[in-house]
Write a structure and sequence with these properties.
The complex is a heterodimer of chains A (about 250) and B (about 325). With about 250 residues, chain A is of the alpha/beta class. Helices cover about 30% and strands about 25% of the residues of chain A. Chain A is globular. The mean pLDDT of chain A is about 95. Chain B is of the alpha/beta class and about 325 residues long. Chain B is about 30% helix and about 30% strand. A 7-stranded parallel sheet of chain B has the order 7-11-6-1-4-5-12, with helices on both faces. The longest helix of chain B is centred in the C-terminal third of the chain and has 18 residues. The mean pLDDT of chain B is about 90. The chains are: A alpha/beta (about 250), B alpha/beta (about 325). Chains A and B meet through helix 3, helix 4, strand 8, strand 9 and strand 10 of A and helix 3, helix 4, strand 7, strand 9 and strand 10 of B.
Chain lengths: ~250, ~325
């Protein structure tokens, strides 16, 4: 799961150009919320234990508290401040290797980085299959393969059988979202969340530095399309103008 | 595969996906700047029509991996095969479309080869030590520019509709190289048990006018009025993802990365804010008219004509004006 800044927060660059930084509170990435819900649903249906994991500064801890309040059994934070998905996937894969999970669930995209590459890289590093844009998960039981429906894009879809362990990137809307009861949230916030540092993952600072291949050179608001012609006036006047444009374009 | 730049072609049902020509245009530009050769990798089964479409593409080489094992897309098989080919003949730069298949394969291939990957890019240019790429961040409201060290293998995925304004023309026939399926690949832990294309239902890609509806229309009951407008205009209704997720419209109507890519003469976006995924499916429309309450909605970045207001207030007048227009014709 990833903690992301709220919408409307202006991103900036770190002084050394190694990161994109955001001020303000962090919220759960909506896409990952579906992954948690799907995990909790599988737990209700077939049993098992759900662990919520994130990589981020202490600010990101709150999404783990919420995950615990919603029903996750454990939570782990990798204490790192990274924006490069190449680095993030390397660190997460190392942490996940020790967890030996049967099933890893993620969302399809983060609202801040928008890369959609971390899950596939984690699965490849762990040598497990990865399926992107999953819209349905069925799991009959411990010794059964996963039965999935996934989107291929362009309106096409596939049904699959996948052996565990596997990583699934679930599509938004796969299961309904639930909300953590306030009492459970208050209780969860009192729990300490274990955090793993680089040396817990047996990664040296030099090893990580050698993997840094990217510098941020600028961060800018998207330029508004200055060629957009604004149609204004009364509702009737607007409707007439829209029709004129439609007729012209035919 | 003795080229420095490799483009992974995307195709379905024997037809080349247009994103492949965008990738070739970007590849040609980098190739010209770096003095590198460009190749295209086509993987699949029964590839003759796709290869034929690429014969005059102006790339230096066409690597064809035509094997029955690749008849149906299976990430397990595709990733293993392509990673094995790349490991044998290292490239410098691999360009992939930022599509669902491109996303799934590039992330896995890059990690397998310990290469650097930047996905969802809008542009790539050659720089002294590698590449300069631009890509969206923060829900698409900001653009980041990155300098990527190109010493090792680099993979880049590029969005749809990001082609260069001028396509470098390099006439000539590519050398066609048939590749053998790498041997000893592990059996894929993924088994494809069925595949559907949404082609049986409504085909919104054929409509000249699309009345596209989004969350801004408010209530499901309003849909009927938009359908009426589409009928009067002689077009079709289309939809953003949330409405399909809520079950208001079937997936055939969905425009965007996971739905259809459309380019009608007129795209009338009603109450659609314009997520990246949605814009990817409609930004090539000839004329885009967008109506939204939020003047900062990303849909206005691609709109030719913009109206800031409540679509449900404008709709009755618009339907009336369309009726008058239809009667006058």
């Amino acid at each position: 799961m990833k903690a992301v800044p709220g919408s409307g927060v202006s991103p900036g660059m770190s002084d050394d150009g190694t990161r994109i930084v955001n001020d303000g509170d962090a919220f759960v990435n909506e896409s990952d919320d579906y992954a948690l819900e799907q995990a909790l649903m599988l737990k209700r249906n077939v049993g098992g234990k759900v662990t919520a994991i994130t990589l981020g500064t202490v600010k990101s801890q709150d999404i783990l508290h919420t995950s615990l309040a919603k029903g996750a059994d454990d939570a782990i934070r990798i204490d790192a401040d990274e924006f490069d998905p190449n680095i993030v996937s390397f660190l997460l894969a190392r942490a996940l290797k020790n967890l030996n999970a049967d099933l890893i669930l993620t969302g399809v995209e983060s609202a801040d980085g928008m890369a959609s590459q971390v899950p596939m890289a984690i699965a490849a590093r762990l040598g497990m299959p990865c399926v992107y844009a999953v819209t349905r998960v069925e799991w009959a039981g411990e010794d059964q393969p996963l039965v999935l429906t996934r989107e291929l894009g362009g309106g096409r879809s596939q049904t699959l059988e996948v052996d565990k362990p596997a990583l699934l990137c679930v599509q938004a809307g796969i299961v309904p979202l639930t909300y953590a009861p306030v009492v459970k949230l208050i209780h969860a916030r009192r729990k300490g969340i274990p955090s793993l540092k680089l040396n817990d993952l047996e990664i040296t600072a030099d090893e990580l530095a050698a993997r840094r291949k990217t510098k941020v050179t600028s961060v800018q608001p998207v330029e508004k399309n200055s060629t957009t012609q604004w149609l204004t006036g009364s509702v009737q006047a607007i409707a007439t103008q829209i029709m004129e444009k439609i007729v012209e374009a035919r | 595969m003795n080229t420095e730049i490799l483009i992974i072609a995307e195709h379905s049902n024997g037809e080349l996906d247009p994103i492949t020509s965008d990738l070739m245009a970007w590849g040609a530009q980098i190739g010209a700047a770096k003095g590198w050769k460009t190749g295209v990798l086509v993987a699949g089964a029964g590839l003759d029509p796709v290869v034929a479409a690429l014969r005059s593409s102006g790339v230096d080489a066409l690597h064809v991996l035509d094997d029955p094992a690749l008849a149906v897309y299976n990430a397990g098989t595709y990733v293993e095969a392509i990673a094995a080919l790349l490991a044998k003949a290292p490239q410098r730069l691999v360009l992939v479309g930022h599509t669902y298949l491109g996303i799934e394969m590039s992330g896995a291939i890059a990690a397998r080869l310990d290469a650097t990957l930047w996905s969802n890019c809008r542009s790539i240019a050659a720089s002294d030590h590698g590449y300069q790429v631009t890509r969206p961040i923060s829900r698409g409201a900001y653009t980041s520019a990155l300098e990527v060290d190109g010493a090792g293998l680099t993979l880049i995925t590029l969005q749809r509709g990001t082609a260069l304004p001028v396509r470098p023309s390099r006439p000539g026939s590519p050398q066609i190289i048939s590749l053998d399926m790498p041997s000893g690949l592990p059996v894929s832990p993924i088994r494809v048990t069925g595949q559907t294309s949404a082609e049986l239902g409504t085909d919104i890609t054929k409509a000249d006018i699309l009345v596209a509806v989004g969350r801004g229309i408010g209530e499901q009951e309003h849909l009927r009025e938009y359908q009426d407008l589409a009928d009067i205009l002689g077009g079709s209704i289309a939809s953003s993802r949330p409405l399909v997720d809520m079950g208001w419209l079937p997936v055939d109507y969905q425009v965007g990365l996971s739905g259809r890519t459309v380019q009608p003469r007129v795209y009338l976006a009603c109450g659609i804010s314009g997520s990246m995924q949605h814009l990817a499916g409609m930004r090539s429309s000839k004329v885009i008219i967008a109506i939204n309450e939020d003047p900062n909605a990303p849909i206005f970045e691609v709109a030719h004509y913009g109206i800031v207001g409540d679509i449900n207030a404008i709709l009755p007048e618009l339907t009336q004006a369309a009726k008058l227009g239809a009667n006058a014709r």
